[in-house]
Specification:
121 residues; 2 domains; elongated
């Protein structure tokens, strides 16, 4: 069984862009200004874990990882993510997220054209 390749990480956004998005999402909250400066690389940092397994389980994991041309670490990480996504709690949170309604008046149809955005006043 082969896993589909992982999607590429989302592009890096500036702190100012994130502050504007947050202000659009939560109009009743006072904006945080200046926005917190953070590195784009901290968003996708994976966490290290130490686990203890039997010799048989370790042997099986090494063989399975070799079959899938991946590392044992990535294999175990994917297995944990699959378990997480299979849980009721994950899907309940996903369903709640889908119920969030779009912000009225905020859509791509009302964007400025390139000329309008770059027009000198």
């Amino acid at each position: 069984m082969r896993f589909a390749p992982e999607p590429p990480p989302e592009p890096c956004k500036s702190s100012i862009h994130e502050a504007r998005e947050a202000a659009a999402r939560y109009p009743l909250r006072p904006p945080r200004w200046p926005p917190t400066l953070s590195s784009c690389y901290t968003r996708f940092v994976l966490k290290n874990m130490t686990i203890t397994v039997s010799e048989d389980a370790a042997r099986w994991a090494r063989l399975k990882a070799a079959e899938e041309n991946t590392s044992v670490s990535k294999l175990v990480g994917r297995m944990l993510e699959d378990q997480m996504r299979g849980s009721d709690e994950y899907w309940a949170a996903y369903e709640e997220w889908k119920k969030i309604e779009p912000i009225r008046g905020l859509d791509a149809a009302h964007r400025l054209t390139r000329e309008e955005a770059n027009a000198r006043r």
